Amino acid sequence: MSHKITTNWKGNMLFDSDNPSGHHVMMDTDVEGQEREGLSPKALMLSSLAGCSGLDVVSVLEKMKVEVDDYKMVVEGQLTDEHPKIYHTVTIDYHFTGKDLNESKIKKAVDLSAEKYCGVMEMFRQFADVKINIIFHNN
User: Fold this and answer.
1) CA–CA separation, 60 and 68 (whole Å)
2) Considering only Cβ atoms within 10 Å of each terminal Cβ, which end of the chain, N or C, has fewer?
3) Which Pfam family, any one, appears in the UniProt record (predicted)?
């Protein structure tokens, strides 16, 4: 299986990139005097990591019949000081909110994503130290 995307320059530092699903994302970077219209490519990598793992976790929780009221991930990447600047450490905080949360099943779902299913996380592990925290917010 392969994925193919097309990215078009839209002027200044703005690029429009398609996706095999047909959806588009706008990317740019900070330039003094220009308004940002898109996401930065490096931060978008962190969003891809959260999206990949998040989809896994939701899928596993549904199969386990585990319900949560809210679920979010906060991903922070630390960049190297030297060019090319890459993420050397990435921390993913998984936040689950609900009443009577099944903490052991939720932990299993996160572990399955992190250790077996999430290809983006495995790619990150090739160049960064990936750290995972699970935070439970019981109502």
Assistant:
1) 12
2) N
3) OsmC
pTM, rounded to two decimals: 0.93
Segments forming the whole domain that contains residue 8? 1-29
Is residue 19 domain-shared with residue 45, that is, in the same domain?
no
Q: Where are the alpha helices (DSSP H) in the chain?
A: 41-64, 103-112, 119-125
Contacts of 77 (CB under 8 A, 6+ apart): 42, 45, 46, 87, 89, 90, 128
CATH number of the structural domain spanning residue 91: 3.30.300.20
18 and 59 co-located in one domain = no
Contact 53, 93 (CB under 8 A): no
pLDDT in tens, 78-104: 999 999 999 999 999 999 999 999 999
49 Cβ neighbours under 8 A, 6+ residues apart = 75, 90, 92, 118, 120, 121, 124
